[in-house]
Amino acid sequence: MIEVADAAAARKALARRILRCPDCRAALQPWGQARPRTVRDLGGLVAVRPDRARCTACRRTHVVLDAGLLPRRAYTVRFLGQALAGAVHGYGHRQIAAGLGAAQDTVRGWLRRARSTAEQLRFIGVQAVVALDPDALPTVDRGEPLAHAVEALVAAAVAAHRRFGHGPREIWARIALLTHGRLLAPSPTG
User: Which residue intervals define the domain DUF6431 in the entry (predicted)?
Assistant: First the structure.
């Protein structure tokens, strides 16, 4: 899976063989599309069908996923971000689920997963902020690890946008890029 800021620009880059394989760094070529799926966004249902790419050297295939989407999730990153923001503001999973129109079990699972990986998420955010703009590093004690993690990720997303000036406008899509599309399952640090 390759997380991209702009799916249309990535499609053009793929056609011109500018995108590189994350495994071997060789050129990628278009390889059709992934299966269509429907995901829930804050405004309702969205039908998506991401592009696929195949490496010209190692022959591995990759799905080119827009930053607003998460792999293997039926919800957009913006939808999930609203749930995390609600938890940071002190709402429980039942209130958040009711406000979003989502299943309580789904929201509870997201919050449990995010809380269990909050330190990893905070580390990703702090590491990015330090690299991009150390003055933007959050210094206020939020009390809860998830609040620290979300604050660090938001600060990193804002710092990245300020520094580079391009990429997705939506903050949760920028956070998805920082976490490589693994907001609920960050890669091990180290």
Answer: 21-87
Instruction: Say if 152 falls within a structural domain.
Output: yes
Is residue 7 scored above 80 in pLDDT?
yes
Is 183 domain-assigned? no
CB atoms within 10 A of CB 186: 20
| Residues whose CB falls within 8 Å of the CB of residue 90, separated by 6 or more in sequence, listed in order | none
Start-to-end CA span in the chain (Å): 21
Pair (41, 87) in one structural domain = no
The total number of structural domains in the chain stands at 2
At residue 190, the pLDDT reads 40
Structure confidence by residue, pLDDT tens digits, 39-59: 999 999 999 999 999 999 999
What's the confidence (pLDDT) of residue 124? Answer: 95
Sign of the Cα torsion 125, 128, 134, 136 reads negative
Q: Cβ contacts of residue 162 below 8 Å, gap of 6+?
A: 132, 133
Residue 85 is assigned to a structural domain of this protein: yes
